[in-house]
Amino acid sequence: MRIRSMLLLAAGATTLHAASAMAQADSNNALVLEEIVVTATKRATNLQDTPIAIRAFTGDDLVKSGVSDVNGLARIAPDLNVTNDTIFTKISVRGVSSQDVSEASDPALTIGIDGEYVNRPVALNASFFDLERIEVLRGPQGTLYGRNATAGAINIIAAKPQLGKTAGFLTVGYGNFDAKRAEGAVNVPLGDTVAVRVAGMHTDHKGYRKHGAVGRGEDQNVDAARLAIAWEPTENIRTYLAGEYVNVDQLPPSQFGILVAQNGVLTNAAYSAGVIDAIPSTTAFENNGIPANLTFSGINTRNFPLGDLGNFNSEQFALRGRIEVDFDLGTLAYLGGYRDNETNSALPLNGYLPATFTFRNNKLNSETQSHELRLSNTLDNGLFYQLGGFYFHEKVDLSRGLYLELPRAFLNYFYRPDIVSKSKAAFGQVTVPVAGPELTVTGGLRYTDDAKSATFYNYGPRFGRGEGTTPPAFGSAGATILRPRSSSDQVTGNIGIDWKPADDSLVYGKLSTGYKSGGFDSVGAYEPEELIAYEVGTKNRFNGGRLQFNASAFYYDYKDQQIQVFVDNNVGARTLNAGKSRVWGVETDTSVLLTENDELSFTVNYLDAKVLNFATSLIGVNGTPINDADPVTPGIQQFNLKGNRPPQAPKWTLSAGYSHTFDLGDGSNVVASAFSRYKAAHYLSVVNWAGMRQKGYMMTDLSVEYNSADGNYTVQAYVRNLEDKQPLAFANFNAAAGSLIYNSIYGPPRTFGVQGTYRF
């Protein structure tokens, strides 16, 4: 008997995750877990035969889960930690992340959409719709994916036009907060060698939080469309071209704020209990102390007054293409992508009444292109090789200023009209059978050359000029002009051995390296970061394919980790290189078909991540930096954050899911599913101050789904985040114009609704 897929790790629809918990009947009519094919190694392989810690989710999983962007992806992949710093998306995997979202920085996790390289944090808000699959790779992928893959990689694969087949689907849904969602696609063949696929999505909801007279914050409104064409003139030539448009017009995440100190004086005497002495040798506060132990209770995350909600508008256009040609030497493939992103926003920062600080005229435009040429082949003896070259070019045009509402003037304003990043790389990797296909050795190398340049136009305070919200004209007098530069090159690689002691078992060990390019800010440059990873793992199926157990253990030696620290109200946040960091952990993933109608899955992840050496200055209550931890001793003794945990790195991440199918007798069924995930306490900043700590929490998702006998209709009712937890997504102390403010942003509340899908 064939059991329909039940994806428990889909946090919205919550049926068992496609990577490891789909049931199917094999050729002997025995119930087994489904075989999943992935392209994580740049060729099609069975997921259980791929020596990478990886999760994979189908497009159907994403539709049922209501996952429409990277933030939603974190619900179905619990070991993927995603937060939002205002309009910027930050992703952490295994304690490795990039907290710097500035214009000259890069992410630590490579994201590609059909081979198009997506680099800007704001561009990660691009919508997921009509997808074939998403693959989440954990661990450095420096050989095949290149720079900025120290944390791992996310491969997003869009559904492709299918030759000779007319098909499509339509999903519509409605939920609380007046949430509306529609997604659909139509595939149309044009003769025997051409097919076209048209897809689109609309999603919107009202704001999650009440903010007094200005209304509700955090509403959503996204429209997206894609037109794709496939042409296969011969059996040896395959081409694909797609144009995509995404329009986001909504409110940014609401920032809650507390004024902690004004001009170096605490606004509440009770706060002094949380302000520790900057210099342990004295009893008096030095330089107004540090708010290290300061915490706040009683925050109403659903209802707090604001003076301004701000806005966030983003238009993205992307063009992607792929050409594959088979000939005697192998398959030659070209993958290319172009993306134009125009973003404008206003971001209120203080988070209380009256409105005090706002980033206004906040423009962040970027234009990127990426190109990869790759040759691959499998020889008669089983040896597989691939080699190629990669080129990436990005230009960022940015401008914004910190506007003070009371004097109606900018405290600062800056233009960054020509931030240019270029990256070139050559790579090769080979897999050699040592003792047949049961024992293979894989090795690869990649050389990357990076260069960045920019011109910074920095304007100082505009008080008394009567300009209001009008910024200084670009090129006008009064700007400090800087021309920072950065360049680096690096060789990364990997070596690994894979052993299959049985058909359903894989044991692997590997050493791999990752590299994240350096950059600069208005003060100076910072170095690239390097990571050496050691990993062993095993993937297994037992009991005739009804039990699956995968596990991996890893150790990272991390050098020059790029860490962002708020320095003072004149410089703001800076990216610095930590001397050394260490990360190790163990991950397990289990799926069980208890009966033909019952399925269970659970994961257990343990992570120990620490900064071993990181000397830095810290911010004091008056907003100026504290540079010397002990002025009694001659010289400067900087604070050392040795022993601190990196941001978004919970020690424990657990998940468990269960699904039961009720057969209705006519071929139709009802699937009831539950999925819970737990994240232990973790910090939102490497400083590890108490106000930046999120306590451990659990979230549970429930769903009931009806599936018609012919498979054409699905109707689902769901509850996501049953406990109504709203964990910290951002928390930090910020300073401007003499004010020290504690800011925080929180995750979405409980949502529920219904949706239906029709397939043809």
Annotation keywords:
mainly beta; 52 strands; 22-stranded antiparallel β-barrel; 760 residues
Please give the radius of gyration in angstroms. 26 Å
Q: Helical element count?
A: 2
- Unreliable stretches, pLDDT < 50, 5 or more residues? 1-22
Beta-strand proportion: over 45%
Structural class: mainly beta
Report the principal-axis shape: globular
- Main sheet attributes: strand count, strand direction, barrel closure: 22 strands, antiparallel, barrel
Helix content: under 10%
- How many DSSP-defined strands? 52
User: What is the residue-averaged pLDDT?
Assistant: 88
Distance between the termini: 23 Å
List the helices and strands and how they pair.
Layout: E1 23-25, E2 31-33, E3 37-38, E4 45-46, E5 53-58, H1 59-65, H2 70-76, E6 80-85, E7 88-93, E8 96-97, E9 109-113, E10 116-118, E11 131-138, E12 152-158, E13 167-175, E14 179-190, E15 194-205, E16 209-210, E17 216-217, E18 220-234, E19 237-250, E20 256-262, E21 265-266, E22 311-327, E23 330-348, E24 357-378, E25 384-404, E26 409-433, E27 439-453, E28 456-459, E29 479-482, E30 485-502, E31 505-516, E32 519-520, E33 525-526, E34 529-542, E35 547-559, E36 562-568, E37 572-577, E38 580-595, E39 598-613, E40 615-616, E41 618-619, E42 625-626, E43 639-640, E44 652-663, E45 669-679, E46 682-683, E47 693-694, E48 697-707, E49 713-720, E50 728-736, E51 739-746, E52 751-759
Parallel strand pairs: 9-12
Antiparallel strand pairs: 1-2, 3-4, 5-11, 6-7, 7-8, 9-10, 11-12, 13-14, 13-52, 14-15, 15-18, 16-17, 18-19, 19-22, 20-21, 20-51, 22-23, 23-24, 24-25, 25-26, 26-27, 26-28, 27-30, 28-29, 30-31, 31-34, 32-33, 34-35, 35-38, 36-37, 38-39, 39-44, 40-43, 41-42, 44-45, 45-48, 46-47, 48-49, 49-52, 50-51
